[in-house]
Amino acid sequence: MPKRPAALTDAARAKLLPQIETLDKLREAAAGCRACPLWKNATQTVFGEGPDDARLVLVGEKPGDREDIEGHPFVGPAGKLLHQALADAGIDPDSAYITNAVKHFKFEPRGKRRIHQKPNTTEVRACYPWLQRELDLLKPNVVVLMGATAVLSVMGKAQTIGKSRGRAFPLPGGARAFITVHPSSLLRIPDRDDRHQAYADFVRDFRQVQAEMKAKKAG
């Protein structure tokens, strides 16, 4: 298990964040965050990764079991599906910055297994300053919110994904947000035909994102 860095309290974090001017420094500071209790059982902070000049930011919900162990976002089955969907939509996965609304793995131990749990509102809000600073530093054109936790974090309130999907929402700084499902939800669909259709819809969402990216570049 990695050695834990010195704790960063809420007050220290609030004082430090405005002074951080690079993603590397932000990642280093987040490694010591103790703003909510999730750090106690997680292996490590799992921060965002991708190009410093990325025009597209993908926001998931929280790290999973593999992400918690390896220390990188979206390296598990959901991440593989996401990368495939991006490629099928004509987006280079390596061109996007990928992160999560919550940076620590939340789970319930059951024997030797660790069962994923959804972060609560307090945990989401405690972690939001890190995500907000990521977006401030990156200044992306498009932000894709994957799943309810990502929507709550960035939009500030819960929204029904089915009703919000396919619409563009303005964000501070000029970026536009698009809402879609989290790729892990596709993996839980038991029926093959339903899963195939859900994947097609997921790719369609990213084709819309790709069209928005091209429009921004052309403009």
Task: Summarize this entry quickly.
This protein is α/β, with parallel strands linked by helices and 219 residues long. 43% of the residues lie in helices and 14% in strands. The chain has a single domain, classed as Uracil-DNA Glycosylase, subunit E, CATH 3.40.470.
SSE diagram, text form:
Elements: H1 10-16, H2 23-30, E1 56-60, H3 65-70, H4 77-88, E2 97-100, E3 107-110, E4 113-116, H5 121-138, E5 142-146, H6 148-155, H7 161-164, E6 168-170, E7 176-180, H8 183-187, H9 192-218
Parallel strand pairs: 1-2, 1-5, 5-7
Antiparallel strand pairs: 3-4, 6-7
Helix pairs in contact: 5-6
What structural class results from the helix and strand content?
alpha/beta
- At the fourth CATH level, what is the homologous superfamily? Uracil-DNA glycosylase-like domain
Beta-strand percent range: 5-15%
**What is the level 1 CATH name?**
Alpha Beta
What does this structure look like?
With 219 residues, this protein is α/β, with parallel strands linked by helices. It has one domain (10-218): Uracil-DNA Glycosylase, subunit E (3-Layer(aba) Sandwich), CATH 3.40.470. It contains nine helices and seven strands. It has helices at 10-16, 23-30, 65-70, 77-88, 121-138, 148-155, 161-164, 183-187, 192-218; strands spanning 56-60, 97-100, 107-110, 113-116, 142-146, 168-170, 176-180. The strands form two sheets. A five-stranded mixed sheet has the order 2-1-5-7-6, with helices on both faces. A two-stranded antiparallel sheet has the order 3-4. Helix 5 (121-138) packs across helix 6 (148-155). The relative contact order is 0.15. The mean pLDDT is 93.
